[in-house]
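> example.struct
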């Protein structure tokens, strides 16, 4: 299964920025398809490769362990790879396509797009055409979407239709707006972090459950139309 198994009528769910065993257990209980580990020291959600390895050991088969990196050096990336059994890489910085391919070294990977006004979708998907997925996030200062949604209406419908099996939608999603996002875009997967937190960097088990229930309700509604 995993995050990028495209199944029409079933949106996959990734919860990012998990840091504790309680986070992992709550996400699994809620029915998550992938969990994200942040290897970017400036982030409040960052953790060490060794801690990530301990958390990954709690994941059942079929749940992806996603490693989020931002402009990682060879040394930093090697340390992560040596300790943590990541199954899917998320390049969230200014990595070139060549750099992504080099670091992933045959493993699946996705490239984050920082979507602002006049973002060139066709150019981006052509440039990173070897990516297994395109993660659409909001353009804010720094890296990561900052829990801010972007204008979904600005995504060309033809681009969405052509790339839906590879689109992971992120950026300000929460229980209240994820249904609209799924109805409009029908992405392969959705990605949430701050939208399931009780305070910055602290995951809330109840919000994780509510978010995934909202995704499933949106899938059911789409399937019945």
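> example.seq
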């Amino acid at each position: 299964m995993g995050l990028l198994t495209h199944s029409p009528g079933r949106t996959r769910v990734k919860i990012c920025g998990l840091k504790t065993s309680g986070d992992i257990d709550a996400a699994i209980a809620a029915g998550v398809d992938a969990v994200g580990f942040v290897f970017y020291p400036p982030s409040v959600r960052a953790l060490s490769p060794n801690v990530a390895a301990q958390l990954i050991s709690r994941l059942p088969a079929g749940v992806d362990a996603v490693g989020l990196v931002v402009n990682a050096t060879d040394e930093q990336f090697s340390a992560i790879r040596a300790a943590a059994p990541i199954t899917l890489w998320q390049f969230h910085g200014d990595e070139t396509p060549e750099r992504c391919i080099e670091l992933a070294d045959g493993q699946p990977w996705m490239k984050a797009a920082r979507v602002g006004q006049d973002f060139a979708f066709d150019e981006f998907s052509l440039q990173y055409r070897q990516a297994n997925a395109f993660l659409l996030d909001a353009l804010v200062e720094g890296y990561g979407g900052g829990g801010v949604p972007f204008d979904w209406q600005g995504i060309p419908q033809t681009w969405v239709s052509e790339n839906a099996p590879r689109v992971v939608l992120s950026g300000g999603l929460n229980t209240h707006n994820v249904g609209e996002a799924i109805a409009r875009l029908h992405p392969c997967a959705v990605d949430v972090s701050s939208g399931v937190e009780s305070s910055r960097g602290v995951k809330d088990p109840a919000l994780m459950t509510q978010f995934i229930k909202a995704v499933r309700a949106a899938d059911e509604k789409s399937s019945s139309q």
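> remarks
Residues 12-224 form a domain with the TIM Barrel fold (CATH 3.20.20.70).
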